[in-house]
Amino acid sequence: MGEKKEKKSKKEKKDKEDAPEEASASEDAPAAAPPADKPKKVGNVFALFNQAQITEFKEAFQMMDVDRDGFISEEDLASIFQQTGREPESKALKEMIRESPGQLNFTAFLTLFGEKMHGTDPESTLRDAFTMFDENKTGKIDENYMKHLLTEVGDLFTKDEVKLTWKEAPIEGGQLDYLMFVQYIKRGKEGED
Fold first, then answer.
1. Is 177 helix (H, G, I), strand (E, B) or coil?
2. Is 61 or 20 the better-scoring residue by pLDDT?
3. pLDDT for residue 183
4. DSSP line for 78-140
5. What is the mean pLDDT of residues 10-37?
6. C-alpha 98: how far from its chain's center?
7. The pTM is what?
8. How far apart are CA 81 and CA 87, in angstroms?
9. Vertex 58 angle, CA 108 and 119, to 5°
10. pLDDT average, residue stretch 2-7
11. Do 160 and 166 contact (CB within 8 A), yes or no?
């Protein structure tokens, strides 16, 4: 019976370690700046994914946590590589672990996916990028001009990619409201689940 209590206690401790730190922080409190060489943390990372996605990520995390200590380490990653018949380079493993802004527990694991899937550029950086093409500084860019930029300059969009982008973009009267579009990119549309 004492063994069951000990297992339960270890599980409760592990669950507390995996709990999001952001939940206890005030929404209005300013976040501490991340070190310059580390990516900026996504706000409440659990809000970026639905429950089914979080469950899938948890299963993946548990498969990668070979030693079952609640953290993914270089040794865990090396073991995963070896299971696929590959011998990993130590340098590559160190670089993978270095992407995490601390010990790689489940919350940090989820944060990394959130950053990769939702981008980490701050809204101000995205706004500034659009502003460069807004000659009159109105917060809007002509739809045809924007399509031209997307298909003729830089990393070229295909017609299908433009169509998908425009499907989500706030365009009214032939004008892309890029201020609203930046909000969609970073926070999603109002009322989205």
1. strand
2. 61
3. 86
4. HHHHHHTT----HHHHHHHHHTSSSS--HHHHHHHHHHHHH----HHHHHHHHHTT-TT-SSE
5. 40
6. 16
7. 0.43
8. 6
9. 45
10. 47
11. no
The rounded radius of gyration (Å) of the Cα atoms in the chain is 21
Q: What is the rounded CA–CA span in Å between residue 189 and residue 133?
A: 23
- The band of 26, judged by pLDDT with boundaries at 50, 70 and 90, is very low
* Sign of the torsion angle spanned by Cα atoms 47, 48, 51, 57: negative
Closest CA to 14 of 87, 69, 58: 69
% of the chain with per-residue pLDDT over 70? 73
Q: Kindly list the structural domains of the chain, giving each domain's residue range(s) and its CATH number in brackets, ordered by start.
A: 38-116 (1.10.238.10), 123-186 (1.10.238.10)
Q: Which amino acid is at 149?
A: L
Q: What is the pLDDT of residue 43?
A: 53
Q: Token digits for 55?
A: 């469950």
How far is 94 from 150, CA to CA, in rounded Å?
Answer: 37
| 163: helix, strand or coil | helix
Helix axes 51-64, 74-83, angle to 10 degrees: 90
What whole-number distance in Å separates Cα of residue 34 and Cα of residue 45? 16
Q: Which residue in this structure is represented by tokens 């009322």?
A: 191
3-state class of 175 per DSSP? strand
Rounded distance, CA 193 to CA 191, Å?
6
Local confidence band at 10 (pLDDT 50, 70, 90 cut-offs): very low
